Amino acid sequence: MTWKIVSNQHDKKRLLLEESLFALGNGYLGVRGNLEEASNELCQIRGTYINGFYDDVEIPYAEKGYGYPETSQKMLNLIDAQTLKIFLGEELITIFNGDVKDYQRILNIKKGYLARRFHYTTPLGKEVVITFKRLVSFTYQSLFCQEVEVKPLNYFGPIKIISELNGDVENYVDKSDPRVAQGHSKRLLINCQRQFADFEVLESITEQSKLRVLVLSQTSIDHKHQKQVKFTDKRFISEIRSTLDQKITITKYNLYYDSIRYGVNLLNKAIADFKIIKKLKFNQLIASQESYLNDYFSLCDIKITGNADLQIGIRFNLFHIIQGVGKDQFSNIAAKGLSGEGYEGHYFWDTEIFIFPVFLLTKPDLARNLLLYRYHTLDYARKRARELGHKKGAAFPWRTIKGTECSSFFPASSAQYHINADISYSIIQYYLVTKDDDFLLNYGAEIIFETARLFIDIGHYLENGFNIYGVTGPDEYTAIVNNNYYTNVMAKYNLHWAVKTYQILLEKHGKKFTKLLEKLELTSTEIAEFKKASKNMYLPYDKALDINPQDDSFLGKPPWDFANTPENKYPLLLNYHLLTIYRHQVCKQADTVLAHFLLEDEIDISTIRNSYNYYETVTTHDSSLSSCIFSIMAMKIGEIDKAYEYFSETARMDLDNTHKNTKDGLHMANMGGTYMAIVYGFAGLRIKEATLSIAPKIPKQIESYSFTINYQKRLIKIFKNQATCKLELLSGEEIKIIVDGKYLLLKKNQ
Ligand code: BGC
């Protein structure tokens, strides 16, 4: 049962939540778990999305300052193919009317499909058992397939099926929540519709970006029937009439194509694919889902014994990550994946710091792709740096789809310069894990140099060393400060690695590398500047407290009055003006604590411990990106019970809707954080320059955990229970790694 998420509730109040929990996707296409029979009167966020498919929307400003972005991108809700209404006679089968028994909605994580099954009696007493199934194929990225089985119990007679392909769609808007879009809901206009002998095609175009999306849809039934198709109210409506005399099966294939990937002639591509796909039965499609997921989980799964709820949570999170992650150069992974419209489908630093590590240690090809996406947007980042007034370097956007800055609120976006160091940090991690020289030479180095240049440009020297003023760290409850510890230490590392990258590539790839140096006009004088700034980087430290202050002003602010802040005033950002928040010592999320995780060798363990204890008391964890980091660092300082508590929170955050906004989509960074809390937290794994280092511990609440990582072309399995720890080299050459601070030679069959 730890491979299935089961819901027995068909309560209207849970619908929005379940739409996110039961969303399906493959990294390209995503469909929320809406009900096939639901109509517009119902409170729902009916959604289908393509990763990286957007419209440009104007950002309205009352007072627009210099360099504010003029447009944003918005992931659009696409043509809806989900509707499949089944009528017994003229009575609609719906969970909102009639009698529903044995209701079960099951997300099968192993087989990659969703099923909804119930015993239904209409108000006039017609009884059937109905099963709706659906999948978004990992093998055929355009395909969203549905199947409905109707089994008669006491009713034998006319049955009618209404299947829709609806172009009248819009995005969800919530004016009261800054984390959800506030306007621009209708951006997709029907471009053309065509009816073929056995399928329908609808194409729409976005208002501004002029991107096109095409859907080919076919609904069929395994019974003698009459079918009529009409186009009305911006939708195709197919009406199929038949007789329910034994079990009948209805199948609907929906194929989605966009002009970013497939260019001009979407229709030809759709028809060619459909010729192949229509021969495949739903069960065959499930079989290929299973084989894809088997391969994925054989690398990524984390097994936990002694707590089924947490095991389910881990697998649920890993499943949604693979469903959300972009697998081509046009896409990345949005803060909510493809499960909802929160944050408008934008990509953030969430990718590099929270989700990338999952793939880095399991499927490096996907990790590489995430970095390649950034590389392809480097020119936009260069342009943005100029807009921000920097003579050199590249400034990556805080939130984006195509690569330009989409945020209108610079204190919590453009000011978060750390995103540049975060991207470089991931490139370095990728290099250390894969030794992929080719990537470093052709893509990674350019980003590392350009971001290093940015830090040189924004910093300046004072007596205490190299200072960086006027930035915002990860914690969004503190903005535009001087010397944010996180930013400075990450910039230091970025600069240090710019020098190192220069040396590595000069030595190994002199000739080819010279070309890059020429292209970037990067001289040894600049490299010397990088070295000097890195060496002299000022890192705030408070001797009396033995902590790293979050920034120069943090400790001088009065603490937030937590004792008089009622539960219903969280998250603070929805209940207090940001200026009030900024003036206090209060953190939305891990900031210095996160820096201590990413770069632990910069600092003594006593400072790490004291800082953890200090920041824990002032952190609200209003951001879902926080608990996982506190879990990792609690483990680091030996607070095992706390580590477990924070971990439990991450593992079940969406399943238990603890942030109360899962309806807007799943918290992808936290889902990556669950993996990190075990691998980096419980097992204490770190990727050091010398080699891999681990220090496994286990909370008393679980019996054992195990996982496998992919490190420098080796598969290494780590198993830990209350009594022992076992390391196994499953494939690849022997290697020296660090275990609990000591070197150990890991050989096969040890
Ligand atoms: C967090 C950011 C994060 C964003 C998207 C915000 O609430 O504070 O750190 O990048 O959500 O997940």
**Strand portion:** 15-25%
Global structural class: alpha+beta
> Could you say what the CATH topology of the domain at 78-271 is called?
Beta-galactosidase, Chain A, domain 5
Radius of gyration: 27 Å
Our count of helices gives 18
Largest sheet entry: 9 strands, antiparallel
Taking all residues together, what is the mean pLDDT? 97
CATH class category name of the domain at 78-271: Mainly Beta
Helix amount, in percent? Answer: 25-40%
Q: What would you call the shape?
A: globular
Can you list the ligands bound to this structure? beta-D-glucopyranose
Distance between the termini: 33 Å
By CATH, the architecture of the domain at 78-271 is named: Distorted Sandwich
CATH homology superfamily of the domain at 78-271: Glycoside hydrolase, family 65, N-terminal domain
Instruction: Strand order, main sheet: write it out.
Output: 1-9-10-11-12-19-16-15-14
Low-confidence stretches: none
Number-wise, the strands total 29
Protein model, in words:
The chain has 18 helices and 29 strands. The protein has 750 residues and is of the alpha+beta class. The protein has a domain at 78-271: Glycoside hydrolase, family 65, N-terminal domain (Beta-galactosidase, Chain A, domain 5), CATH 2.70.98.40. The strands form 7 sheets. A 9-stranded antiparallel beta sheet has the order 1-9-10-11-12-19-16-15-14. The chain has a 5-stranded antiparallel beta sheet with strand order 8-7-13-18-17, with no helix packed on it. The model has no long low-confidence stretch (mean pLDDT 97). Beta-D-glucopyranose (BGC) binds at residues 335, 343, 348-350, 474, 476, 588-589, 623, 625, 669.
